[in-house]
Amino acid sequence: MIPEAREVHLSRKDRKVLEACCRSPVTLQRDLKRARIVLLAADGRSTRSIAKEVGVQPRIVSLWRHRYADHGLEGLQDKPRPGKQPIYTKTTDKRILKLLDKPPPQGFARWTGPLLAEALGDVDVQYVWRFLRSHKIDLVARKSWCESNDPNFTAKAADVVGLYVAPPAKAIVLCVDEKPSIQALERAQGYLKLPNGRALTGQSHDYKRHGTTTLFAALEVATGKIIATYSKRRRRVEFLDFMNSVTATFPNRKLHVILDNLNTHKKNEDWLKAHPNVQFHFTPTSASWLNQVEVWFSILQGQSLSGTSFTSLKQLQEHIDAYVNAYNDRAEPFVWTKKKVRQRRFKGRRITQL
Question: For residue 204, what pLDDT is reported?
């Protein structure tokens, strides 16, 4: 049974809105039908005739006549519907976070999605993964950090940084360190052609060892050039021999040498007395990253050593020498941009000793 038809009185403003809605090519069909129903009802048409012209059931016409008569244009909008109650709530999210603060099950290195779902008991693993992604929690990625506990961190770091940004006049600033135990590994390598026609470059897992060498390097901060030599060991005597060669490279020049806190770098007062033009500057404890030669060691590893094969220790050393010569031909100094030095402890770290 169709309810009694409601009279519809349109204001001039509402009529313009509804007529514009009917003319617009982007109006949704449901909104177009509702606008036509109200316009026809305002013209005095009956419910059945409107239903026949618009192509809907009479009860639909009656519904929108009543909705407009009671609420105006706002009545033509859909009312919010309750929908299905969510299975998982904020309480579930808190349970996942609370579980992540606990150690993983015995025998496992870290939490995984299935392990979390199993421990929760009533949460699907797909929801666990969605929650982790939405909060940008990566269970696999690992970060490493090094926090210096040197009480004189600020003074030592400022001393080193000062040499980078404002080196003393008529003096040479050098960054010195060793890269120990570089292996001369012989690996079969070349191109591997796949059945689909693709060719891949790579190397075999099998290898032969042909000994190791220690690379001593000094980076000249002003030019970026490298002085390098080799030794079988990295004792104090080898370090001082290298420093002798460095001082010979820069005769009668004041040298400021930046070093890390390795034991062989310290307690060399007798050598320093014999070389009054040389002054050692030490990076703070656990802060060898302040030494720019560490950056060059990383470049050496990535551009020269990774993925190579050597049949002898001599071939390895010749290979590094060739790279050093090529690097020095186009060397540029590293640009040090950090000028302010602060010592600040990490706060609010969620790190516990297990």
Answer: 63
Q: What is the DSSP string of 222-244?
A: TT--EEEEEES--SHHHHHHHHH
Residues 192 and 275 sit within 8 Å (Cβ to Cβ): no
3-state DSSP call for residue 86?
Answer: coil
Long-range CB pairs of 30-34 (<8 Å, 24+ gap) are 31/76, 34/64, 34/76
Question: Residue 121: is it exposed, middle or buried by C-beta count within 10 angstroms (0-12/13-18/19+)?
Answer: exposed
Q: pTM for the whole thing?
A: 0.62
Question: Of 96, 264, 88, 95, which is closest to residue 176 (Cα–Cα)?
Answer: 264
pLDDT one-digit tens code per residue, 293-339: 999 999 999 998 887 878 889 999 999 999 999 999 999 999 887 76
**Helix%, strand%, coil% for the chain, nearest 5:** 45, 20, 40
Neighbouring residues of 282: CB distance < 8 A, sequence distance ≥ 6 = 156, 258, 259, 260, 261, 265, 266
- The per-residue b/e assignment along 152-175, b for 16 or more CB within 10 angstroms, e otherwise, is ebeebbebbbebbeeeeeeebbbb
What residue type is 97 in one-letter code?
L
- Residues 6+ positions from 79 with CB-CB distance below 8 Å: none
Contacts of residue 234, Cβ cutoff 8 Å, sequence gap at least 6: 178, 180, 214, 216, 264
Token output for 80: 């919010």
E-assigned strands of 32-168?
Answer: none
CA distance 219 to 182: 19
Our measurement of the distance from residue 272's CA atom to the centroid of its chain's CA atoms, rounded to an integer in Å, reads 44
Query: In the numeric block, which tokens belong to residue 227?
Result: 């002085």
Q: How wide is the angle at C-alpha 168 spanned by C-alphas 243 and 227, nearest 5°? A: 30
Contact by Cβ (8 Å): 296, 226: yes
Residue with tokens 């949704």: 28
Q: Which of 57-61, 227-231, 341-345 has the lowest mean pLDDT?
A: 341-345
3-state secondary structure of 33: helix
Evaluate if residue 3 carries a pLDDT over 80. Answer: no
The angle at the Cα of 126, spanning 123 to 129, to the nearest 5 degrees, equals: 100
Q: Is 253 helix (H, G, I), strand (E, B) or coil?
A: coil
